[in-house]
Design a protein that fits this description.
With about 290 residues, this protein is α/β, with parallel strands linked by helices. The protein contains ten helices and nine strands. It has a seven-stranded mixed sheet. The protein has a two-stranded antiparallel sheet with strand order 7-8. Helix 5 packs across helix 7. The radius of gyration is 18 Å and the shape is globular. The two termini are about 30 Å apart.
């Protein structure tokens, strides 16, 4: 699910809807972000993340993926230029006395900015980079990613694995039908991003533009499960994928139509369950 699920997708045109960014960030951290835990675990297991890992997380958001890497002993650095509210939560999680069951190393860094803001004399080269924000569910959601990865390569060791994440095929992602609601409601804006099906080579195309060499991929089941419809609405809104729809209509209408779209996925006990498959690509720096 970073996204994009790892950082907010904001409208490209029109007025930005007035939302409580702190509340949205909390909903992301407490409800939505955990949906991507199987993806993080699969990647870390495959790349043997350990005390020898110096990880740079791009678009680190509220830091759950970094926390999981730190629990394996990794030295973690996270950057995020557009989600200060989420980054504040990451700082809470990654403090040594935060009570999250792990003690991050003293060289843990969290920066509101980009890769260039964590470079400098005496900073060891990174030997793993992650971009866990999933692409492939909104037109243009990979714009700028190739350039960011290209700039990041200079901060890494030769042959460093760079992990990209994306939505799987729409027929394997139940949530796709719900995301279409955002595109339908945002349509009057015309210039905003809209839902589109993930394409098979989305991740490979980004890697190629960044000058990276693909070196393996995988698929991971990441079901979206919620205690009730209200939690599902709050979780999905926290992704930022519905912000354009809120700006084009209003919060009440978005909540109503989102609730209706979730109805087929509500089980008898009131929980909401949407199976999804996410894909990851491992590429190597020159």
């Amino acid at each position: 699910m970073t996204p994009t699920l790892v950082q907010p997708h904001l409208p490209r045109a029109g007025a930005t809807p007035r939302v409580d960014r702190c509340a949205r960030a909390r909903d992301w951290a407490e409800i939505q972000e955990r949906m991507l835990v199987p993806l993080y675990e699969a990647v870390y297991e495959r790349l043997d993340v350990s005390g020898k890992t110096r990880l740079l997380g791009l678009g680190c958001g509220s830091g759950l993926a970094l926390l999981m890497a730190a629990s394996r002993g990794a030295s973690v650095t996270g950057v995020d230029p557009s989600a200060p509210e989420r980054l504040a939560l990451a700082r809470e999680r990654l403090l040594p006395d935060a009570g999250w069951g792990t003690r991050p190393r003293g060289d843990t860094r969290l920066v509101e900015g980009g890769p260039a803001d964590v470079s400098g004399p005496g900073v060891p080269a990174f030997n793993m980079v992650t971009a866990f924000q999933p692409i492939g569910c909104m037109a243009g959601d990979s714009e700028g990613l190739a350039g960011l990865l290209e700039a990041t390569a200079s901060l890494t060791e030769r042959g460093t694995p760079v992990v990209l994440a994306g939505w799987g095929p729409p027929e394997r992602c139940t949530t796709s039908s719900v995301l279409r609601v955002a595109a339908k409601l945002a349509d009057p804006l015309r210039n905003t991003g809209s839902w589109r099906p993930a394409l098979r080579d989305d991740l490979e195309e980004v890697a190629q533009r960044a000058g990276l060499k693909p070196d393996g991929s995988g698929r991971v089941a990441c079901p979206f499960g919620y205690a009730d419809t209200e939690s599902a609405v709050r979780g999905l809104l926290s992704t930022g994928l519905f912000d354009a729809a809120v700006g084009a209509t209003d919060q009440v209408q978005v909540d109503k139509e989102l609730t209706e779209a979730l109805h087929p996925h509500q089980r008898r006990d009131g929980t909401v369950w949407m199976p999804n498959v996410f894909r990851y690509l491992i590429a190597r720096t020159p």
